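The protein record passed on for reference:
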Amino acid sequence: MLRLRLALRLHYPLAGTKAMKIKEIQLLNFGELETDEEFHEATNNSPSGYFLRPERISFIKLTDKLKAVKGLKFGIEYLVNGFSDEMDDVEFICKITHPTLINPETGTISNQTIDKKINYLNQNNFDYYCFEYDWEMVIGTWTFEILEEQKLLLKKEFEIK
């Protein structure tokens, strides 16, 4: 009887929970990058008050040790592998944990940047951070995490010096 309950729980989630759609996240690239033209999307989940949204990125240096300089863009590119082969949409989170940042214009203090994403399974995705302001260039460990329903699927750390 216990085996049957466990088997059913794997196929049918508990009431109030969503079924996991992401089988795994495969890290494809990481490091310093360039973007095409970016537009600003207002949000309260970023220390600057907005996210930068480009169409494309390209990696110029594969590394996880970077020097804090104004204009530096660094991040990850990954493949979202689903349990299904379909191009189903999926919700997940990119969380960047970083040293404490204080935005002098707003007084906002933060140590995380959280982007709630909707994308398709079985497609590439990317996340990055750009040092646009002097107050963002804080040395320490910057950690990118991809989560679905609070389950950690990918973690990549960068050391900023």
User: Anything to note?
Assistant: Confidence is low (pLDDT under 50) at residues 1-16. Residues 2-11 form the longest helix (10 residues). The radius of gyration is 18 Å. DSSP finds one helix and eleven strands in the chain.
